[in-house]
Amino acid sequence: MIHAKRAPLLLLALSAALLASPARAGGSAGMPAMAGMQEGDLDINGARIHYVSQGNGTPMLLLHGYPLSGELFARNRAALAAAGYRVITIDHRGYGRSTAPASDPGSIPTYAQDALAVMDRLNVPKAIIGGMSMGGPIVFEMYRTAPERFMGMILIDTIANPASVVEQALWGGMAQKAQMFGPQSLAPELLKDMLTGQTRLNRPGDTQFLTNIVKQASVAADVAGAKALANRPDSLPTLGTIKVPTLILEGLEDTVYPPLFSMKMQQNIAGSKLVIIPGAAHAAIFEKAAAANQAIINWARTVR
């Protein structure tokens, strides 16, 4: 039992600990470390890949978008683990707490190979595999390479189309800005699309949390990820080959890859389910985590 007179001091100590590592614990924006959480670093394909694993049930591997890290899913791990899933997140090479060799800073095929190798190292033969934004093309590449590793698929605010000329120019600009001004310069460009205006206005902690993650990336990773998005494979032909249960999650106010793209994916993936989350932009999995968690749990219970 905590004595009433000691409670304020304990709360202050806890607050200081959370604020000391915002990208890990997230303060009010994320989730503190929970019992049953494991994390570490794996030497994978010349890179050092950081992973977090929480829970002991059916494996669920979640892949982050550009230029974030596995901490994008800080609000999802505990809820999904409590529902009976072993939630695994990784930082793609060069992002978050992962590092990459100069010879291969990253590409869609490399990110996919890294993720499959992490599954091998963690003794996960099959999993529900999901990807947000850039994570989507990575998931498609994993499916083309090793469909037998999939129990199900989750596509979160992502796209199957190749980049248009306009989008290619946008990613080229991101790469150039990162080279000129550093990773932190990308945060203002991206956060206006990651979160709705209402969230940015009323929940500044959310903006700061994602900003801190963006700052963690290396310049080489920012450039490599931008090039990967600009030159991503056309995954439209892949949609018709997907034979595993598939959930598509989409923020209603996503301006990066608007709902129309998710609606078209749903039409082309047999038996897939589309859930559109109101009041959420591109980072719907974080901005409206409770709604996203419930949608994933409801769907995942049908996966056999």
UniProtKB/TrEMBL annotation:
Q: Which Gene3D superfamilies match?
A: alpha/beta hydrolase (3.40.50.1820)
Q: Where is the AB hydrolase-1 domain?
A: 59-289
Q: Which region is the signal sequence?
A: 1-25
Keyword entries, A-Z = Hydrolase, Signal
An example of a GO molecular function for this protein is: hydrolase activity
User: What InterPro entries does UniProt report for this protein, alphabetically?
Assistant: AB_hydrolase, AB_hydrolase_1, AB_hydrolase_fold, Epox_hydrolase-like
Pfam families in UniProt: Abhydrolase_1 (PF00561)
UniProt protein name? Alpha/beta hydrolase
Tell me the organism. Answer: Deinococcus metallilatus
